[in-house]
Amino acid sequence: MTQPGHSKRAGWVVMAAIVLAAAVVLTSGCSSTTQHRWLTFFFDGVSPTNAAPGALAARTANTNTVSGQVRQVAAAPKPPQNIFHPPFIQNQCADCHKSAFSQDLTVQPPKLCFNCHKDFLAGQKVQHQPVAEGECVSCHSPHQSPNQHLLVKKGNALCLTCHDDPLAAGKVKHQAVEAGDCLDCHAPHATNFKGLLKKSVKATCADCHDDIPGKKKFVHQPVGDGECLDCHAPHATKFTGLLKKSVKATCADCHDDIPARNAKDVHQPVGDGDCLACHTPHAADNKNFLKKTAPALCWDCHDNFLAKAKFQHDVVEDCTGCHKPHSAAGNFLLAKDVLKVCGDCHDDKDLKADKGHAGAEGKSCLVCHDPHVGTDANLLKPSAKPK
Predict the structure, then answer these.
(1) How much of the chain exceeds pLDDT 90, in percent?
(2) What pLDDT, in 10s, does the model give residues 34-84?
(3) C-alpha closest to that of 279 among 218, 238, 225, 329
(4) What beta strand segments (E) does the chain contain?
């Protein structure tokens, strides 16, 4: 006995067949435009009448139809194309292996590699440890790789497999290291320079820093000798200017007598380690690598008492004639005791011959005189002027 459900499904099948047959009959004798209208009435996803050959296939490959609406689907990214080692792609397995069915090598690396590749270790003083020990496959894939030179990883990621991230050493990072590749400065296999540098430290730094030391008259000895790494870290550090230490500690590595050990008075910038307030670190046109000559350099911190002076001591144009720039055993950073400083120019005989100095022996000249400027030719203080 036939079930009601089967009879109903059979009816739908018959009806669908009749509709399909009608569509074929109706379109068989119609123009292409009429056929297209009937086809789009009964079916979704019919390509336009003006579509180029193959357009439907391209369209359906990149679209999905959901509830009669076309949804664009992004094309899958193409996988990277592998680079093949020539002996491998040419099925020359026996060039490296004992047979086509063995993984055993005829010779161990790096000698095996040098059968085809130039011996880049010959004559080189500094050799990369994996290379010297024949661990070529630590960095290179022997058969195929998506990376240039058959590397197992790209760029700096490969170096960080063994080496700690050099940029993690501090907040101040060398821009060239952040933006570049380790191989910008370092040789991957062997070289004649420490640190596997391609060139000397001086030449390596000069590739970017070509203005050091410039054409200055005086060049700091470490700079002239290309000893950049005596002061600077090449990758990253905690200190401004990529210094390995603070400015004070860096300078003290060579200039350990500043300030003097017996100093009673220390110039404030020196005590604070602010050496670069007065000196340039690399090169300068002034002696002692001063940024300016005295007294202009001194006016950067001290008031210019010469600007409005009626009379001035003729030696004040050279502050270091009387004062020590860094530290001194006495007050006011004087190079000597006051009487001795004045005595360098003012002879004792001349002073004794002057009646005004009678009984002044042993007393400080500063009791009566201003050392720098005054309102009269003798630089007398108001309290010392005769009434």
Answers:
(1) 63
(2) 555 655 555 555 555 554 444 444 444 455 555 556 666 677 777 778 999
(3) 218
(4) 63-66, 69-72, 83-84, 126-127, 144-145, 172-173, 190-191, 218-219, 236-237, 265-266, 283-284, 311-312, 327-328, 373-374
Q: Kindly list the distances between the CA atom of residue 90 and the CA atoms of 9, 95, 100, 113, 143, in Å, as whole numbers in the listed order.
A: 62, 11, 12, 17, 11
Contact 227, 250 (CB under 8 A): no
Place of tokens 């005769």: 386
Nearest to 226 by CA among 251, 196, 201: 201
Instruction: Give the pLDDT of residue 357.
Output: 76
The one-letter amino acid at 118: K
Whether 220 and 281 have beta carbons less than 8 Å apart is answered as yes
Quote the pLDDT of residue 58. 45
pLDDT tens digit sequence for 202-245: 999 999 998 888 899 999 999 999 999 999 999 999 999 999 99
DSSP class of residue 191 equals E
Helices (DSSP H) in the chain: which residue ranges? 4-28, 32-42, 55-62, 86-89, 129-132, 155-159, 175-179, 201-206, 221-224, 247-252, 268-271, 338-343, 348-353
Q: Each residue of 339-354: pLDDT tens digit?
A: 889 988 988 777 777 7
Kindly tell me the number of DSSP H helices and DSSP E strands found in the chain: 13, 14
Mind giving me the DSSP string for 158-169?
HHTTTS--GGGG
- Model-level pTM? 0.72
Q: Exposed, middle or buried: residue 341 (CB in 10 Å: 0-12, 13-18, 19+)?
A: buried
In 3D, which of 148, 149, 204, 198 has the Cα closest to residue 176? 204
Pairwise CA distance, residues 196 & 190, whole Å: 6
The two structure tokens encoding residue 317: 């144009």
**Where does the pLDDT of residue 101 fall: very low under 50, low under 70, confident under 90, or very high at 90 and above?**
confident
Residue 274: burial class (beta carbons within 10 Å; 0-12, 13-18, 19+): middle
Residue 266 in tokens:
């220390």
